[in-house]
Description:
The structure is a homodimer of 309-residue chains. Helix content of chain A is 38%, strand content 20%. With 309 residues, chain A is of the alpha/beta class. In chain A, the strands form 3 sheets. A 5-stranded mixed sheet of chain A has the order 3-2-1-4-7, with helices on both faces. The radius of gyration of chain A is 20 Å and the shape is globular. Chain A binds chain B through residues 127-130, 143, 145-146, 148, 150-160, 162-164, 166-167, 174-176, 241, 244-246, 248-253, 279, 281-284, 287, and chain B through 127-130, 143, 145-146, 148, 150-160, 162-164, 166-167, 174-176, 241, 244-246, 248-253, 279, 281-284, 287.
Amino acid sequence: MSYALGIDIGGTNTKFxxxxxxxxxxxxxxIVTSVYSTPHEFIDAISHSxxxxxxxxxxxxISRIGIGAPNGNYYTGNIEHAANLKWKGxxxxxxxxxxxxxxxxxxTNDANAAAMGEMIYxxxxxxxxxxxxxxxxxxxxxxxxxxxxxxxxxxxxxxxGHVIAIRNGRLCGCGRKGCLETYTxxxxxxxxxxxxxxxxKEASLLREAHTITSKSIHDAALLGDRIAxxxxxxxxxxxxxxxxxxxxxxxxxxxILFGGLSLAGDFILKPTQQYMDDNLLIxxxxxxxxxxxxFQGSDAAILGAAALQ
Amino acid sequence: MSYALGIDIGGTNTKFxxxxxxxxxxxxxxIVTSVYSTPHEFIDAISHSxxxxxxxxxxxxISRIGIGAPNGNYYTGNIEHAANLKWKGxxxxxxxxxxxxxxxxxxTNDANAAAMGEMIYxxxxxxxxxxxxxxxxxxxxxxxxxxxxxxxxxxxxxxxGHVIAIRNGRLCGCGRKGCLETYTxxxxxxxxxxxxxxxxKEASLLREAHTITSKSIHDAALLGDRIAxxxxxxxxxxxxxxxxxxxxxxxxxxxILFGGLSLAGDFILKPTQQYMDDNLLIxxxxxxxxxxxxFQGSDAAILGAAALQ
Lengths: 309, 309
């Protein structure tokens, strides 16, 4: 049996773990990414945990290392200009980790890693064509076709969050307008909530909330709050329309939603499926499932990184 | 040296030819598709031409047959419910042709065949990630990622013509509204021309034209007709915006335009490149070339079909 070391580098925390072929995490740890002023100190910290907690027997069984990181590029092995990391410019992270641990190492961005995680260990097991959509602070995606990640000629494919959902719509962090991310990210849905609350006079539990989040909207929806349902409906409509266009390109078997909004379960999955089906070209109608990730927790990132190969 | 027989089945004509490894067409012929009331009579007619004109020596060298056909499905080998063909329902065309000619046979839709043709013999030689867009009566596309066609789980991927370019825009033959095809197909551009002519009071050569076509708009543009330029600009804007979204999904090295509008050369290529670049996410800006097909003629379809493998 061969094991993989999965490393998920996030702007705040970095999680890593040893994963067996069945997707069982045998050991895991995490460090605070942002306290390390250089990538080398950061790598030393991972190495320290690795050497202290993983015995020689297990170390020998680890045959490869996978890294998921913001702006991680599969082709170059670099982290390139990641907005959420302290270390600026181009960092040859895969090479440095490979040198440190003496194991073949590959890197890709976090959404691509999540897609691989679902394919190897999760709900996309056995699928060769699917789309992974990660809904968080930003919106990322990983497209799998013919059983392989679509990386694009430069390694930067899969930016569904920056497909224009509404032309001349909300201003996006990328400087353009109407990106899907501005409606379906954690901040996007809060903007939608505030807009709907302002336009409506209807009573809502959300009017009394100190801060509105995906979670408080979900909580209100569970209690039958009509404004909360309207927020999910509005968001699902935009997501469903955009997914329908993506389906016309790659014709996937399923679309898997992870994190953020997707934690609202059927409140978002059902209307998104409905709006997507309503907008699909007839060839695709009724053929594309919208699923929730198998890993709605902190293990997902480690499994995703460990699945890279 | 091994040859391929390429068969391009169109609603009106079917062209076929023997192609060598360098993409030279050694023999070609065509028949009128629509006169054959059954697929078997149609196959017999191709076989008759084949047996009469291709000598035993050359027949022996043909190692495979590729077919491009409307709604041709790579996975099933069938032509499924093709609107432009007389033969209704599901036709196991690849199997029947394979049986008749005793050569391994595969089928796909015409745009996918065109993409393979560009990759094997044309401007996409050496590329592993590109998008082929066929602009004709309809708008088709073939997406190549990791050096392989994206077929989707059901073989129906690559319907860029039915991505929504303008939400609630023009009514499409598919029953939905605002599909790219309604703006960039042969009929789409004529509708645009008529709309612009109605809205403007400016003189134009097109006002005197009996019938407006892509070609007459191109001819007027060559003479500096400002309305003609405006028609190309409007169309390029919509095409460029839609391509920018497609780039965010597959991050191609190039987008290759074939037929119809693309025959207007720089009148359409240059503004489309400009509008696409204006609309691209910064990661992709300046990295994606818009090219014209290497085969702007009747050979393209045969080469495309012959390239299938």
